[in-house]
């Protein structure tokens, strides 16, 4: 189910609301959104929870507004201002060049207030207790970034951005780092996720519209997450029993061959049977699904 998370609630709050609305506790989500952020939150329901590892690995797309001139505790508008700094004269081409320098695979330090665990405790919990812990640095992908505009007003200078990122990318951290590259400090004042993989804001429902009719059928959803491979009767029987499948063909989505070590959704007569990983001439079952 694709939900348009509003500003305010946490991702866990959305999951709790969905559990009540759908009458099941078997609900997870694919990619945390901060309370200040809005937009696409993909919920995995019942058997769909088995797809969470692949859902979270998908790229994400965001629209964000970075306000230059003030640094906050949370790197967004919900935090307390720690520092202010003057903002140099900037035009969109200058900002675009600085933003483009972050493209590709680069190390990024996560926000000190985040859901990342250090020694088994989430950083935001440590921050509430007044602890000072260095947030981890991880390599993350920035696939694309566009500067949509630069505006000056009484509260500072705002930079509107469009980004496409890989797994684990923090837009708040990017805002901090981009501000530093521009010779100042900054924090996010708006963040909206417009896509998570192939699930987009156009199909998202509001929190008060949560209902089972809004759930994307599993066999349909998996085709947006993984390449698909049809099974014959014998292959489906093997996969349902967790046995390796010897496929007649490794052609996925009717177009290309599944690479060695890659995963594919194995379908039989329109039903998702399992996710398999190619190992030589076999498909090893990684995750099985119960037919409904």
Please name the fourth-level CATH homologous superfamily of the largest domain: Pseudouridine synthase
Span of the ends, CA to CA? 17 Å
Tally of separate helices: 7
Name the CATH architecture of the largest domain.
Answer: 2-Layer Sandwich
Mean pLDDT: 91
Shape: elongated
Determine Rg (CA atoms, Å): 22 Å
N-to-C SSE string, H for helix and E for strand: EHEEHEEEHEEEHEEHEEHEHEEEEE
Strand segment tally: 19
Q: Beta-strand percentage?
A: 35-45%
Biggest beta-sheet profile: 9 strands, mixed
CATH structural class of the largest domain: Alpha Beta
Helix content: 10-25%
Seen as an oligomer or otherwise, the chain set is single chain
Q: How many domains make up the coordinates?
A: 3
Uncertain ranges: none
Structural class: alpha+beta
CATH topology of the largest domain: Pseudouridine synthase
Short description:
With 292 residues, this protein is an alpha+beta fold. The chain is built from seven helices and 19 strands.
């Amino acid at each position: 189910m694709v939900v348009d998370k509003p500003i305010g609630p946490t991702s866990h709050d959305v999951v709790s609301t969905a559990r009540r609305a759908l009458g099941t506790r078997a609900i997870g989500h694919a990619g945390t959104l901060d309370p200040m952020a809005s937009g696409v939150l993909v919920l995995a329901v019942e058997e769909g929870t088995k797809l969470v590892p692949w859902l979270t690995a998908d790229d994400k797309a965001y629209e964000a507004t970075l306000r230059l001139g003030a640094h906050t505790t949370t790197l967004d508008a919900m935090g307390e201002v720690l520092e202010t700094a003057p903002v140099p004269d900037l035009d969109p081409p200058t900002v675009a060049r600085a933003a483009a320098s972050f493209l590709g695979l680069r190390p990024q330090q996560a926000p000190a207030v985040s859901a990342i665990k250090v020694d088994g405790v989430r950083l935001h919990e440590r921050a509430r207790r007044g602890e000072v812990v260095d947030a981890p640095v991880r390599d993350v992908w920035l696939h694309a970034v566009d500067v949509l505009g630069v505006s000056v007003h009484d509260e500072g200078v705002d930079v509107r951005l469009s980004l496409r990122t890989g797994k684990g990318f923090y837009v708040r951290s990017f805002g901090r780092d981009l501000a530093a590259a521009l010779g100042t400090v900054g924090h996010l004042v708006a963040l909206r996720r417009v896509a998570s993989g192939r699930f987009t804001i156009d199909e998202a429902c509001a929190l008060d519209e949560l209902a089972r009719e809004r759930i994307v059928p599993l066999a349909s959803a998996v085709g947006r997450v993984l390449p698909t491979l049809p099974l014959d009767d014998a292959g489906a029987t093997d996969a349902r029993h967790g046995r390796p499948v010897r496929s007649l063909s490794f052609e996925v989505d009717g177009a290309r061959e599944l690479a060695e070590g890659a995963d594919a959704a194995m379908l039989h007569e329109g039903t998702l049977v399992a996710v398999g990983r190619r190992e030589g001439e076999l498909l090893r079952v990684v995750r099985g699904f119960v037919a409904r």
